[in-house]
Amino acid sequence: MTTNPSKTEAATAAKYAEPARLANIPPISATALAEVTRISDAGAGRATSAFSAMDPRRLDLPVPPGAEKMLNPPTMVTTRDQNGELVLDDLRVRIRVPPWYFTDLTSGYDDDLVKIGGILFPYTPTIGYEYKADYAAQTPMHSNYTLYFYQRSSVGQISISGVFTVENRRDAINYLSTVHLLKSLTKMKFGKDSDAGAPPPICRLDGHGDMMLKNVPVAIINFRVDYTNDVDYFNFPPSDVFGKNSVPTKATIQVNCVPIYSRNELLNFSVQSFVSSRDSSRGFL
Predict the structure, then answer these.
(1) Do the Cβ atoms of 23 and 75 come closer than 8 Å?
(2) CB 94 within 8 A of CB 207
(3) pTM for the full model?
(4) What is the mean pLDDT of residues 237-249?
(5) Cα separation of 265 and 259, whole Å?
(6) Which residue from 29, 61, 135, 208 has the fewest beta carbons nearer than 10 Å?
(7) Which pLDDT tens digit goes with each residue over 50-66?
């Protein structure tokens, strides 16, 4: 999977759309640079009046032809199989959330987050989780070996760490919606809520296909985002929904979640089916 950032909102729309869609924006053709009078050696390093008049440090001068800022290549999101054939299914990592969590603050630009069903990691994230089988140790007297008795099996926390970039207003709104949605997904219903006391919701994790992460029920237990001082911050005009904001042009969001299965799902679980059937194992790690 390759994703090339672009500074156009059309490219951002393609980044949040299906992987086969491309934002086709032709690059600006370069023209010949205008010659500028050089610093005169005879002037002992001082600029001539002609050079001073065209000093590129002067902010009131127009950009010379050919020095215009080039547009980056448009965003391209493609997924291919081992034979190089285009895969139309979107296999990117996403966390699907209950629909009632979408509001003006969490829907993204032009409902981008609603259309994908939740949180999308636009660039391939780092994912890690652990399987474990616990055994209790017994050490009989006058024995050469320790005896082990099985206790339980478990799947640990799932850690997802992905990069988010902001290069235009659409990116900025989608980033703010993503962070605000994560804040909401870690809170219980409380106070004036009609279902006060209800725990945070169960979400669904998808990523990389049927045998990787598919429809895994998860609860988000924490997330972390760092606002560092080594990147630029994007300011966009105040809006009625989001107000005034300064958003980092590049940030890493780390989400930690745990798989949570209902009692009904566990009662219908079969190791034999898990081993032999892809459909039966879907959702179980």
Answers:
(1) yes
(2) yes
(3) 0.70
(4) 90
(5) 12
(6) 29
(7) 555 555 555 555 666 66
Average pLDDT, whole number, for the chain?
80
Do the Cβ atoms of 173 and 109 come closer than 8 Å? yes
Give the separation between CA 147 and CA 135, rounded to whole angstroms.
Answer: 9
What local confidence, expressed as pLDDT, does residue 194 receive? 86
Please name every residue paired with 100 in a beta bridge, in sequence order, or none if there are none.
Answer: none
| 243: its two tokens | 């107000």
Q: Tell me the C-alpha distance between 215 and 202, whole Å.
A: 11
What confidence tier does 195 reach under pLDDT thresholds 50, 70, 90?
confident
User: CB-based burial of residue 169 (10 Å sphere; 0-12 exposed, 13-18 middle, 19+ buried)?
Assistant: middle
- Taking residues 149-169, report their average pLDDT: 94
Contact assessment for residue 48 and residue 40, using Cβ atoms and an 8 Å cutoff: yes
**By C-alpha distance, which of 59, 102, 68, 75 is closest to 167?**
75
Q: Any bridge partners for residue 131, and if so which?
A: 155
Residue 50's CB is within 10 A of a number of other CB atoms, namely 11
